[in-house]
Amino acid sequence: MTDYQAMQAELVGDINAAPDLDALEALRIAALGKTGSVSALLKTLGSLSPDERQTVGPRIHGLREAVSDAIAGRKAALEAAALEARLATERLDMSLPADDAPKGSVHPVSQVMDELAEIFADMGFAVATGPEIEDDWHNFTALNIPETHPARAMHDTFYFPDANADGQKMLLRTHTSPVQIRAMMTQEPPIRIIAPGRVYRSDSDATHTPMFHQVEGLVIDRGIHMGHLKWTLETFLKAYFERDDIVLRLRPSYFPFTEPSAEVDVGYKQEKGRRIVGGHGDDEGHAWMELLGSGMVNRRVIANCGLDPDEWQGFAFGVGVDRLAMLKYGMDDLRAFFDGDLRWLAH
Ligand code: PHE
Q: What is the full DSSP assignment across 4-27?
């Protein structure tokens, strides 16, 4: 007859000496698994006489219980030790000096937005904001882009599946121009605002990311003309690039919400792999980089906001902030801006 006492002592000894959870699991299978040693003993019970079963049965069951208790105990102990070890390695010494620790910094895009707000504040512009989740009317219709207008196709719009309470389609704003509408509807002219913020278009390559940043500018007053627009942009870009030899090119363009419209390019040259702003884009070694869209606010937009277009005129512009940052900091892939790579950000 098997010496259950000796068998139990040996099994429990092995279990308590198991160095890790894997070894423990191997022991469990060897004893209590389908073909394990203790399981094999349990199977013999069926072939015993009722008398034998009465004496042997409780001893085998007792053995099985002792082994599974030992396994549970060892398992808990090993897990506690593993946790202790992990806590020890993940320990943070709060008294260490912070000198070498990674520091937070202002993202280049935020830096540029701050700079722009400062430059425009000097010219008497206030900062306005609007929601990034817009309705169809503010983003398109009020800006003279009705449902069937082909200009809607120029904006690869992210729409939400559900309309709002007024039955309006909701979307991620494709530009900051809806803030023009919100400003004209809530403020008495004269109005002088810039509206920095995020905008969204379903578009992605080296110079386009699905989320990017614009700064909208809007001036509404009496007797405003293109000359005011050109002076404002020139003054702003000279301040931003910190140089006086900036040359701008205004190209006739089309936006439904401005008439006439102009796209504005800035002259630059390539120097040591960097784009240096300045000089005439048509000169030897120079080129033009498109920076912004602009124009005189369309009379229909002014009327859509409840103002009299015979009394009030204005100009508007929309600048790509990320592009401005690329130019100033000499970076050529827009996507790196939003990768969140700490080394890039620190650089
Ligand atoms: N909203 C236009 C765009 O995103 C830019 C723009 C703004 C053009 C204001 C004219 C006036 O492309």
A: HHHHHHHHHHHHHH--SHHHHHHH
What CA–CA distance (Å, rounded) separates 323 from 49? 91
Distance 129 CA to ligand 1 centre (A): 16
Find out whether the beta carbon of 177 lies less than 6 Å from any atom of ligand 1: yes
Q: Over the stretch 198-240, which tens digit does the pLDDT of each residue have? A: 999 988 777 778 999 999 999 999 999 999 999 999 999 999 9
- pLDDT score at 347: 67
For the stretch 114-136, pLDDT in tens is 999 999 999 999 999 999 999 99
Distances (CA, A) of 36 to 10, 17, 23, 125, 287: 15, 19, 15, 82, 81
The whole-chain average pLDDT of the chain stands at: 90
Domain boundaries 108-345, CATH class:
alpha beta
Q: Is the CB of 130 under 6 A from ligand 1?
A: no
Q: Whose CA is nearest to atom 7 of ligand 1?
A: 318
User: Cβ(217) to ligand 1 under 6 A?
Assistant: no
Contact 332, 207 (CB under 8 A): no
Among residues 110, 127, 18, which one has the least CA distance to residue 67? 18
